Every structure is written in C-alpha cells, then in structure tokens.
Amino acid sequence: MVLVSYSNSFVYLRPRKTASTTTELILSTYCRGPKDIVGPTGDSDRHRLRELFQLPATKNHQIPAWKVRPRHIRNALRRGRSRPEMENHTSAQELDHILGIKLQQLLIISSTREPFDRIISLYHFRTESLNPRPSFLEWFWSKPEHIVRELRETTLLNGFDCVDYYIRQDDVEGSIRLMCERFKLEPPPEQLFAALGITRKPSDRDRALGITNYFDSSAIEFVEREFAKEFLRHGY
Predict the structure, then answer these.
(1) Could you identify which of 63, 78, 123, 169 might form a hypothetical disulfide with 19, taking C-beta atoms 3.0 to 4.6 angstroms apart as the criterion?
(2) C-alpha distances in Å from residue 5, one per residue of 10, 157, 170, 180, 205
(3) pLDDT tens profile 84-116
C-alpha cells in the first residue's frame, strides 16, 4: 500500500521489513481527500479491519498514462493487472517521477528498524520456502550489496535519504503520536491502535536467538559500516 495524503500534506514510504503494514493502515486514516492516494493491501485480516474502521478504500493508485514506463507495463502483466499501479514498496525516486513537483510540497514519512534485526527478518522471509535452505551467512555473503540496496532504496531520492520523519518499528504507537503532535495532526482513534497492534507476520524465526547466532565478526563489521548513518540517526 502506498499513501499520499494531499489533504494532510504528507506521503508515506513503505520500506521492507519495518512493520510497515500496521503503520500504513493507521496512516491511511489521513487519506480521505478525493485526490489522496491509497494503494491496495493483499492481507485479508488487514482488509477486514479497513472495512471495520471505515478506512479509505483503494483509490487513485494507477500510474498516469503519461508517466508509464516499460517496466511498469511488465510489472502489471506479471501481476495480472489491467493497468500499471504504484507498488507496495514504491520508492521516493519512483514517486518523484510519478508526482513530479507535488512531492516537494509534501512531508515525507517512513518507517525504520534496527538494521541487524531487519536483515535477519529479511533472511527468514526470503528463504523460508527454499529447500535446502541456505545458512544465514551463506545467504548474506552471496549478495550483501543487494541486501543493503533493497533495504535502503525506498527512502533515497537522488542518492540521499529524503525522509522528514521516521516511525520506529520498536515504538510504532509512540512514534505516530509524536508525529501527530509535531505536525498538528489529529491522533488516530484509540480503538484502531488497539485492534491493529503490532502483530508479526507468520515466520519460522526463533526470536530467542541473538545477533551473534546469525552474524560473524566480518558480517557485523559490514553492517555497521554500511548502515552507519541509520545507527547514528536513530540511536540503535
């Protein structure tokens, strides 16, 4: 789901593996304007909650014809869609192409998560159906630069982090309440926080295992170097 709230002057970028499904449904309460953009969600439970709380339905998420690129057409055909649509993890660079100068007028909001935890989550997500399943280090060292790029590219515009405000995966409710206070937004309904919670998607991950159960010293050094700005900015 991609969100653009012209009525409240913000856009929400959804990075991978940051509890963004919960966050985007809460933030969709601010997308009630006729020109606001709300992308579809494939999660049946979330769809039910969207109906229960009368959250805005999917709207305005097709890519305008004059902005369509060949890869948009390929993606639409692969997914069985009649028209190209904005993807779940549409990047800032992609939105800049689609929205043009309008993006410069919007506050950019996104989500963040501790980098080591995020990479472990990505590993379980990417490899859960593989047989045989590669070890974590085998998977990690097979494409470390790709992993960094995949986790970071959503929030980059012309190579730089363009986000004005981050919602923390380890404190989604607190981050959203602070965001509302800082940017003069009406807080979401209390019932919505309670109903959605921060539920984890099904995974075979053993959460009792720590970083050193996955990463060796070289991998730790690589992550600390590549995500140095994230560690510094968010205090991880």
Answers:
(1) 169
(2) 5, 19, 25, 14, 35
(3) 999 888 999 999 999 999 999 999 999 999 999
Beta pairing partners, 3: 12, 38
Element spanning 166, H or E: strand 165-168
Integer Rg of the chain from CA = 18
* Tokens describing residue 171: 């404190």
Average pLDDT over residues 38-62: 79
Instruction: Output the pTM of the full model.
Output: 0.91
Give, in degrees to the nearest 5, the angle at Cα 16 between 106 and 65.
Answer: 55
User: What is the rounded end-to-end Cα distance, in angstroms, of the chain?
Assistant: 27
Helix or strand holding residue 98 (H, E): helix 92-99
Q: How is the chain split among helix, strand and coil, in percent rounded to 5?
A: 50, 10, 40
pLDDT at 140: 98
pLDDT digits (tens, 9 = 90+) for 55-71: 898 899 999 999 999 99
- Average pLDDT for 229-233: 95
As given in the structure block, the two tokens for residue 68 are: 């369509």
Percent of the chain with pLDDT over 90: 72
| Rounded Cα–Cα distance for residues 223 and 190 (Å) | 37
Buried-exposed string 46-55: b where 16+ CB fall within 10 A, e elsewhere: bbebbeebeb
CB 149 within 8 A of CB 182: no
